[in-house]
Amino acid sequence: MFRQLLPIAALLTSTFLMLTAGGLAGILLPLRAGMEGWSPTTIGWLGTGYALAFTCGCIIVPRLVRRVGHVRVFAVLLTLLSMSMLMHGLIIDPWAWTLFRALAGFSLAGSYMVIESWLNERVTNSTRGMVFSIYMIVSMLGLLVGQYILPFGDPATPALFMIGALIYAGALVPTGLSNAQSPRPLTQVSLDLPGLYRKSPAALIGSLLAGIIAGAWNFLSAIYGREIGLSTFGIATMIASSMIGGAIFQYPIGRFSDFVDRRYVMVVAGIGGVAISLTMIMVQPTTPWVVYTLMFVFGTVLFPIYSLNVAHANDFAEPSEFVKISSGLLIVYGVGSMIGPQIAGRLMDLNGPSGFFVTMAISYAAYGSYAFWRSLRRASQAPSERPDFAIRPHDRPQTPETFQLHPLSEAAQEE
Q1: Inter-CA distances, 92 with 30, 45, 54, 112, 284, Å
Q2: Which sequence ranges are marked TM in the entry (predicted)?
Q3: DSSP for 77-133?
Q4: DSSP string, 325-339
């Protein structure tokens, strides 16, 4: 496993730092907005602006990558993230923050696209679930560390915004100084959502629903914690508990999906999400340790679902399609992220904090139900039948020229 991770160690380190700053921003911004007296619906608009720009980034960034390459684009995006964080601390206004969050959404979408396409070029289908699980664990650990920067500062002052900007800037250093092989330059950039749906309907619709869940979580979970009476430290611990649950279960869920039909794993995740959401609605916990425990369980199905979508979609892809598929899934994910904060914000305005988990229960029910329906529509693909498009290390060196573009390409040439 360590041999497989060594070529991407610098990229994973940059990912960790980027998500550390993102974790700080994710809890700092809604709490500061709440301190300013902004309603959940207003805070939801910050999430919608973020998601709209996130979607635009999925369309525009691949073209930038084609022009100047992965590394340069990644450097520019991290710079924009740092600028966005600083501007939040300089101007306190809901409409200005919507624009600043939009800048962050554009930059993060592009960063995720670059990172995930970079990772996909370095793995085979037999290890994709494992590598993406480790990628998600690193991401969640970064988010977890970011949560606990908050108690060391005052959200009412610019200091935490400056710290976040510095960490974003520092994320550029590992990748910028790495001597690891850069990804191959793109030869074409295109989006084909209908084609992606035909290739993997469960992954496409699953990404939409994962976006709804993530959009609501990212922008309103801290508000949920505040409305049930948690302190700033308690809110950070609540969110961290979910991340710990996700980090612990991310690898076994991802690895298990390498051996069975990934759609069955999606169904189980959907059932788990509905169960814990209904529990939160019925129990309505306010005791901190009860909230932390339930959020730990919730995290086990909150964070793995998007990586399941990505892995499932790429099971049917050629290496030349990795960027296109990553961009397509992120676009759909971004659309879902626009919807989630609006639904959850309005339900929280109407029903109080329980409206947050009503949104989650409905979304998880749809996620699991659709994956189950698709498993009935198309026969499952045995893991041994999943095509490996990348050459294994013992075959020949993994340079850009030695990747198979299709599992039948060599056989076809021999014929």
Answers
A1: 12, 15, 22, 28, 33
A2: 41-61, 73-92, 98-119, 131-150, 156-180, 201-224, 230-252, 264-283, 289-310, 322-343, 355-373
A3: HHHHHHHHHHHHHH---HHHHHHHHHHHHHHHHHHHHHHHHHHHTT--HHHHHHHHH
A4: HHHHHHHHHHHHHHH
How far apart are alpha carbons 97 and 87 in whole angstroms? 8
**Contacts by residues 153-162 (CB-CB < 8 Å, ≥ 24 positions apart):** 155/28, 155/31, 155/32, 155/35, 155/232, 156/32, 156/35, 158/89, 158/90, 160/24, 160/28, 160/89, 161/28, 161/85, 161/86, 161/88, 161/89, 162/85, 162/86, 162/89
- pLDDT tens track for 227-276: 999 988 899 899 889 988 887 887 788 788 878 888 899 999 999 999 99
Residue 210's domain is classified under what CATH number?
1.20.1250.20
Residue 182 lies in a domain: no
**Residue 78 belongs to domain spanning:** 1-177
The verdict on 118 and 209 lying in the same domain is no
Which carries the bigger pLDDT value, residue 412 or residue 99? 99
Residue 388: the pLDDT is 39
Q: Write the CB contacts of 46 (distance below 8 Å, at least 6 apart in sequence).
A: 29, 30, 33, 94, 97, 98, 101, 219, 341
pLDDT tier at 129, thresholds 50, 70, 90: low
Taking the C-alpha atoms of residue 131 and residue 32, their distance in angstroms, rounded to an integer, is 36
pLDDT tier for residue 11 given thresholds of 50, 70 and 90: confident
Question: Does 415 have pLDDT greater than 60?
Answer: no
Tokens of 105: 């959404």
Give 4-8's long-range contacts (Cβ < 8 A, gap of 24+). Answer: 4/122, 4/123, 4/127, 4/130, 4/131, 5/131, 5/134, 7/122, 7/180, 7/181, 8/118, 8/119, 8/122, 8/131, 8/180
Region of residue 36 (left: phi > 0; alpha: psi -120 to 50; beta: else): alpha
The C-alpha R_g of the chain, in whole angstroms, comes to 21
Do 101 and 215 fall within a single domain?
no
